[in-house]
Design brief:
The complex is a heterodimer of chains A (424) and B (70). Chain A has a single domain, classed as MFS general substrate transporter like domains (Growth Hormone, Chain: A, Up-down Bundle). In chain A, 79% of the residues lie in helices and 0% in strands. Chain A is built from 19 helices and no strands. The longest helix of chain A has 30 residues. With 70 residues, chain B is an all-alpha fold. Chain B has two domains: 30 residues, no CATH class; 40 residues. Helices cover 80% and strands 0% of the residues of chain B. The longest helix of chain B is centred in the C-terminal third of the chain and has 35 residues. The chains are: A mainly alpha (424), B mainly alpha (70).
Chain lengths: 424, 70
């Protein structure tokens, strides 16, 4: 078996652990309220600050990734994340919670995030690039499905201090040794070629004689922002953040507002979350076979139609239709955006470029949640914020569709043309 | 101001978390400790399987390297 698959498995497990441990925060809200008398809004500040810090730290940790290599960054971030999570068990003051969860843990998580592990995987795979990044993204969902219930039961059996200590120890005892044993920066370190090809000539032959870099391949991340594709991708990613962020926070209250019981609303949301695993893996797999930008445009268009149907079909059926369509598209954008960025700009500055691109996503998410809350307070309904979110998806689909992938992506660059251009 | 902005953001939805737990209670029908052990073992099985596969492959490679070539 090609060693790259061990890298994939390790990255999926890291995504599983870190996202599971982070997403379990919700279960600690009630015990913290009870033990310290803090209100829910105050506790939410720690989570929200963490969300913001996570987005802001991505470009910086991406830069360190590009300079030092993925293994060091991911491993040290994982150690810090595990320690910070375990230390949350010692929470004694509100500022300690904000500092440890909102700053330290969130920044550490940026280092082992999908942005960096995705950038690492693109070094190991070329032909199956989006497939493996899609698999990696699905680890996030598995963390929510398995590790969050684990924490819930442990909390029920013990208390919140033991639960946080256990989550931190799991990262330190299971995640860190696995990453230390298996993560490697580059296939060349083991004398291997991407995708497990036997030699560079074979690799070029199997990929249709394509060259290694496209015309926009950059050494410095700033150079990428002088060309159109990254602006198309980042603008679309901003909308992606805006349209998923608003759902994360406001979907269940919206469904309840429409007369659905909280249990059914949660059922619909759970169904949507389950589908995102399928969507992410399928999007990655198919984009390795077909045009990535067309698939990305399709994913945004599908989400836009989902929003439209949500507003047009007033019954509970509308919510289920929305969940089916939006669920497929939820994290499907991640493997498509990461692999298309790698195809166009090469691998040398990919960590930073992806980090900056993700920052657009985080800002979109942050802004949309605020705007939706504000518009709800103003109008007493979620109709306008959801309509705005849906409307934004049309230009996002257009931005993705108008990327000239055939001209800029390495997947469509013939080797002969590259040699001619280089004058050899 | 910053506090007001941040407090508007949400953490993991308690309704959804409650739903996940209800589904698992219904599916597993176990007490909390039994569920902890089961889910903990499932989590442990993942890195254990990856490492076991890696070690087996390493061992096979070493055996293959040592085998006399025709």
């Amino acid at each position: 078996m090609y060693y790259g698959w061990y890298i994939v498995a390790t990255c999926v497990f890291i995504a599983f652990l870190t996202n599971g441990a982070r997403n379990a925060f919700g279960i600690f809200v009630l015990p913290l309220e009870h033990d310290f008398g803090w209100n829910r809004g105050a506790i939410s500040v720690a989570a929200s600050l963490g969300f913001l810090v996570n987005g802001l730290a991505q470009p910086f940790l991406g830069r360190i990734f590009d300079r030092m290599g993925g293994r060091k960054v991911i491993l040290s971030s994982l150690i810090l994340f595990g320690i910070a999570t375990a230390l949350l068990s010692l929470t004694f003051h509100y500022l300690f919670l904000v500092f440890m969860f909102g700053l330290v843990s969130a920044a550490a998580m940026s280092g082992s995030s999908l942005t960096n592990t995705g950038a690492l995987l693109t070094r190991w795979f070329r032909r199956k690039r989006a497939t493996v990044v899609g698999l990696n993204a699905s680890g996030m969902s598995f963390g929510g499905l398995l590790l969050v219930p684990f924490a819930m039961y442990l909390l029920q059996a013990t208390n919140w201090r033991v639960t946080w200590a256990a989550l931190g120890l799991m990262v330190l005892v299971l995640g860190v040794p696995l990453a230390w044993l298996l993560l490697r920066d580059d296939p060349a370190q083991l004398g291997l070629q991407p995708d497990g090809d036997s030699d560079p000539a074979t690799a070029a032959g199997k990929s249709g004689g394509r060259r290694q870099d496209g015309p926009y391949a950059v050494d410095k991340w700033r150079d990428s922002f002088k060309s159109p594709p990254i602006w198309h991708l980042s603008a679309a990613y901003f909308v992606c953040g805006a349209t998923t962020g608003v759902l994360n926070v406001h979907f269940v209250p919206y469904a309840v507002d429409r007369g659905v019981s909280p249990a059914t609303a949660a059922n619909i949301f759970g169904f949507m979350m389950g589908l995102n695993v399928v969507g992410s893996i399928a999007a990655g797999f198919f984009s390795d076979k077909f045009s990535r930008k067309n698939l990305l445009a399709l994913v945004y268009a599908m989400r836009g139609i989902a929003y439209l149907l949500l507003l047009l079909i007033p019954s509970t059926g509308g919510l289920w239709v929305f969940a089916a369509l939006a669920g497929f598209s939820w994290i499907a954008t991640a493997p498509l955006t990461t692999s298309l960025t790698a195809d166009v700009y090469g691998l040398k500055a990919l960590g930073t470029i992806s980090g900056v691109s993700f920052l657009f996503h985080a800002l979109g998410s942050f802004g949309s949640i605020l705007l939706a809350g504000f518009l709800f307070d103003l109008t007493g309904s979620y109709t306008i914020p959801f309509a705005v979110a849906g409307a934004l998806l049309a230009p996002a689909a257009l931005a993705a569709f108008t990327i000239k992938e055939r001209r800029y992506s390495v997947r469509y660059q013939p080797r002969a043309a590259a040699a001619e251009a280089a004058g050899d | 101001m910053l506090y007001a902005i941040l407090a508007h953001q949400g953490d993991a939805d308690p309704t959804l978390l409650g739903w996940i737990k209800d589904q698992l209670d219904h599916l597993l029908g176990l007490g909390p400790w039994a569920a902890v052990i089961l889910l903990g073992l499932l989590t442990l099985a993942m890195p254990a399987a990856i490492v076991a596969l890696y070690l087996v492959q390493q061992r096979r490679q070493r055996t293959g390297d040592r085998a006399p070539r025709p």
